[in-house]
Amino acid sequence: MSKRFIDLRSDTVTQPTEAMRKAMFKAMVGDDVYGDDPTINELEKYAAELVGMEAALFVPSGTFGNQLALFTHCRRGEEVILGEDCHIVAHEVGAAAVIAGVQLRALPTERGRMNLEKIRSTIRTEDIHFPETSLICVENAYSNGAVVDLDYMRAISNIAKEANLKVHIDGARLFNAASFLKVEAKEITKYCDSVMFCLSKGLCAPVGSMLAGSQEFIDKARKKRKLMGGGLRQAGFLAAAGLIALKDMTKRLSEDHGNAVYLADELDKIEGIKVDRDNLDINMVFFTIDNIEDISDKLVKYFNDSDIKINGQEGGKLRFVTHYWISKEDIDYVINTLKNFLNN
Fold it and tell me: In angstroms, rounded to a whole number, what is the distance separating the alpha carbons of residues 140 and 51?
């Protein structure tokens, strides 16, 4: 048996729970491309109802789901308005240019929010020189740890309706956002035309995300999913874990958020460390350490030698992420390890 590491790199590192493993072992499956997989069908029906949409579609990953949404909403050469540091722009390998063939109009953000008037002024008018604007994308929760409030979501929806545009939510951590806002996920998604949300990450399923929207949208997306190589045949083994993720694991995310605050509080007590309190809405803790650019590689190695996995600094900041497999006792060990490193 491999030794256990405390893994703070991301919530993407979560392992499936014992209940998920048992459900996967016993899952009833069929050929999903033919529509014959009963567990996939159950997952898609439940996921759609959970976010207040007519239909949903199982996809291999969050990136796949976001790019499938762009591919389905937009025609080639159209323009998408979104935040300059959102996941679709920063971490999806330029896929929008390759798959959907769209142009990304990336706007500055503050805590995950684009300026509303800037969005309005960025929507293209009719002109022979301009591409057509077709879609606005919003990330919630944002990958910088911030949650976008419902008033902002409503304002985005209103702007889109006025301009006859669609809205897509990258909801990779949608249920973290809902937990922070103390609302059901459908209270967020009622302001969009489509939403992607992950079954993995903090929900612990091993593989998969969902794309949800109108029945017409999902019918189109299903065919485009096949084009992209996402027809997964007997995928019910994965859907069995996904059902537990949505039915059970969504209800405990506040524990991860509480552990993130505990971690932030303990980090704040260490001289030379400054925690980004403005982006502490979910399970991510961003912080700086004096001279982090100089010591980052040594810190990563020291932690790894102490059975802790972390990422190095990015843009002068470190990020620790709490999840189902991180306890308060783990956090105490991490804090003590960090103190030992800084005192050496």
Answer: 14
The phi and psi torsions of 210 (rounded to 5 degrees) equal: -120, 145
15-249 has the same fold as 6-12+252-343: no
Cα 90 from Cα 93, distance rounded (Å) = 8
How confident is the model over 40-64, as a mean pLDDT?
98
Distance, in Å, from the CA atom of 127 to the CA atom of 108, rounded to the nearest integer, reads 25
DSSP 8-state symbol, 143 = T
Q: Has residue 119 got a pLDDT over 80? A: yes
Q: Which CATH number fits domain 6-12+252-343: 3.40.630.30, 2.30.30.240, 3.90.1150.10, 1.20.120.140?
A: 3.90.1150.10
Parallel/antiparallel/unpaired status of strands 308-309 and 318-321: unpaired
Look at the block and give the residue holding tokens 């620790």: 320
pLDDT tens per residue, range 202-239: 999 999 999 999 999 999 999 999 999 999 999 999 99
What is the pairing mode between strands 166-170 and 194-198?
Answer: parallel
The pLDDT score that the predictor gives to residue 132 is 98
Q: Under DSSP, is residue 194 helix (H, G, I), strand (E, B) or coil?
A: strand
The per-residue pLDDT for range 96-110, each reduced to its tens digit, is 999 999 999 999 999
Burial 214-252 (b: 16+ CB within 10 A, else e): eeebbebbbebbeebebebebbbbbbbbbbbbbeebbee
- 315 φ/ψ sector (left φ>0, alpha ψ -120 to 50, else beta): left
Question: Which has the closest alpha carbon to 42: 307, 240, 328, 322?
Answer: 240
Q: Where are the chain's structural domains?
A: 6-12+252-343, 15-249
What fold characterizes domain 15-249? Aspartate Aminotransferase; domain 2 (3.40.640)
Is 171 in a helix, a strand, or coil? coil
The pTM of the whole model exceeds 0.90: yes
Between the CA of residue 116 and those of 91, 152, 163, 296, what are the distances in Å? 24, 9, 13, 37
d(CA 209, CA 313): 28
